[in-house]
Please model this.
Amino acid sequence: MKKMNTTGNAHSERDHLSADIAIAGGGASGCMAAVAAARCGKSVLILEGNDAVLKKLAATGNGRCNLTNLSLSDDDYHSDAACGILSYISPFGREDLLSFFEREGIFFHDRDGYVYPHTDQASTVTHALVKMLRDAGVVIKTGERVTHILLPEESTAGGYRFRLETAGGGVYSANAVIAACGGMAGTQFGCRGDGYELLKALGHSCEMPRPALSPLVTDDDSLRIGAGARAVLCGTLRADGKEIGCEYGQYQFNAGSISGIPALQLSHAAGEALSQGKETILYLNFLPQLSEKSFLAECNRRMSLSRNLTLGELLFGLAADKLTAMILCRSRLQAEMKCVNLNRLTDDPEGLLRGILASFREYPVRITSVGNYDKAQVTAGGIPMREIGKDFSSAIVPHLYITGELLNVDGRCGGYNLQWAMSSGYLAGKSAGETL
Ligand SMILES: Cc1cc2nc3c(=O)[nH]c(=O)nc-3n(C[C@H](O)[C@H](O)[C@H](O)COP(=O)(O)OP(=O)(O)OC[C@H]3O[C@@H](n4cnc5c(N)ncnc54)[C@H](O)[C@@H]3O)c2cc1C
Model:
């Protein structure tokens, strides 16, 4: 068996390369692991299924890469970990991550705490990481989708060696393996959940994966009227009548779904409730700041100015026109109706106005699912945290490490998932590099 040298020049014999450490997956966590391990003087090989590493990272944050967040807390993550996620991250926390890239000449800025490279280009981060891989002598094999990780045979004089096989017939061996294959979110970037199967075959269990940070899907037809509109509002999610989440911010309306950052933030809770068969309803409050008294006073003022006022004119400015039409439609009203005619519909016009206000303040939308993996930014579920140590080593297979989205950790939208992927990758790589 030929061995790769530590400067990263793999031998040409394609069918049996070896390295000290092999990494399955060249995404955010795999590349961080590779740099950290190689800097410990180990030979490192990345096996990446795509035709290039870091394809997903290049698309993060709408191409701007929201790397981390100025406010990181345990509450920003969902996980089965018995202790908070920050206790795993903190040995390579936010400041360490930023310094890691600042040493490569990258500056950062933030918007509402969301941290981006100063260039607002994800490629700034990917180029820096690729340069670090090159400088550290990491060998990258692209187009190599790992299909099997086989446990070491009996220990020989050559040491403890895993065998990795790829879809194209490649065979590789290593003393330690870092599984960094990501989850299933972002199928367009080659993420198919291979890592779960690879690790289950090695004895790990897996909490049922499901999409998170994904639009909320609904069968509510009224959304067709509001499709294309955006609104800053307060959304409260209830499962079987119990509040399970509340997010204020800009929601985006589409025929059949609601997206925007606050909707994505609610998707973990929605997915969990739906998986338990609970009736899940999002109550939209388009006017959280407007009191009933002010609303009625403003309606009366407008009506006193014109006898020909339409309902649309009466409610002008409360929400985007499409959304007002959507809300009125539920009450069987139209924006074109003349206010004077409201008296003919009811003997209590003020009561009708109160009813209209109530529907602006509590517009229920039944959620039927969360968007598929091609719409999701992250996977909830995965390898349970109880099956790894604080250095991301497997508690089941010696010299195996697991990082990033493969683990049962998913963060809120706002840089939390890249922080997790990069911290876990770096720490796993460092531990593997120092332990071997
Ligand atoms: C559109 C989009 C935008 C996002 N924006 C942000 C953001 O701005 N901020 C943020 O914090 N998070 C963001 N995320 C989430 C973030 O990108 C992920 O949480 C993070 O990339 C996970 O890192 P990872 O290394 O675990 O997995 P990945 O980055 O998914 O990397 C896994 C790699 O493994 C490879 N692979 C898979 N299976 C195999 C196999 N069998 N053999 C070999 N290679 C394999 C894949 O091709 C991939 O390159 C976004 C996600 C998406 C989809």
User: Anything to note?
Assistant: The first strand starts at residue 17 and ends at 24. DSSP finds 14 helices and 20 strands in the chain.
